[in-house]
Specification:
The chain is mostly helical and 174 residues long. The protein has 2 domains: 131 residues, no CATH class; 41 residues. Helices cover 85% and strands 0% of the residues. It has 8 helices and no strands. Helix 2 packs across helix 6. The longest helix has 29 residues. The mean pLDDT is 87.
Length: 174
C-alpha cells in the first residue's frame, strides 16, 4: 500500500507541476514534508542539495531519493516512475497536437500564462528554501556569494555547490 501511495504522490507531482524540477519543488515539499511527513524540512533541503549534485533532473533525483529513504530501493524506483509517468504519457499523446497547433493563439496564450506561473513557483521554492537554509550570517553570506558567482561567471551549478561546500568548511571550522 505504501508503494502505491509513493507512486500516486509522485504521479500527482509530475502531473501538476510545470517548469521542470524547480517548479516542482513547492509541490514536492507540500506532499513529502507537510502532507505525508516522509521527511523533515531540513531533510528535504538535503535531498534538494543531493539532487542538485547528482546527474539528471532534480525532480527525478528527488523522487528517487525520497522513495528510497522512505521504503528502500523499490520505493526509489516507484517514486521515479511516478514522477515521470504523466509527462511521458502527456508528451506521447499530445506531441502531435501541440506541434500541429503550436502557432495558434490559444496555444500561445496557454504557454504565455504558464511561463510566469513557473517563475512564481520557483520564487515560492526559493522563499521556502531560504527560510530553512539561512540559519545565520554565515549561511546568508554563502548564499549571497554563490548567487554572485553564478550571476557573474555563469559556472556550472555543481561547481557552485563545491565552492559553497568549501566556504562552509572555512566558515564553520575556523
Amino acid at each position: 500500500m505504501e508503494l502505491l501511495n509513493i507512486f500516486l504522490v509522485f504521479l500527482r507531482i509530475g502531473a501538476f507541476s510545470f517548469g521542470g524540477g524547480y517548479g516542482m519543488l513547492p509541490l514536492i515539499e507540500q506532499e513529502v514534508v507537510r502532507n505525508n511527513q516522509w521527511l523533515e524540512l531540513s531533510e528535504f533541503i538535503d535531498v534538494i542539495a543531493l539532487s542538485q549534485m547528482s546527474p539528471g533532473p532534480i525532480s527525478i533525483n528527488a523522487a528517487t531519493f525520497i522513495g528510497f529513504k522512505h521504503v528502500g530501493i523499490i520505493g526509489g524506483v516507484v517514486g521515479t516512475l511516478g514522477v515521470v509517468s504523466f509527462s511521458f504519457l502527456a508528451v506521447t499523446l499530445l506531441a502531435s497536437l501541440i506541434l500541429k497547433h503550436r502557432e495558434s493563439k490559444v496555444m500561445n496564450g496557454i504557454f504565455k500564462g504558464i511561463r510566469p506561473a513557473v517563475i512564481g513557483l520557483i520564487g515560492a521554492a526559493t522563499v521556502s528554501l531560504f527560510q530553512t537554509s539561512v540559519m545565520d550570517f554565515r549561511t546568508l553570506l554563502i548564499g549571497v556569494i554563490a548567487l554572485g558567482i553564478q550571476s557573474y561567471f555563469r559556472l556550472h551549478p555543481i561547481i557552485i555547490v563545491f565552492i559553497s561546500g568549501g566556504l562552509g568548511i572555512l566558515l564553520y571550522q575556523f
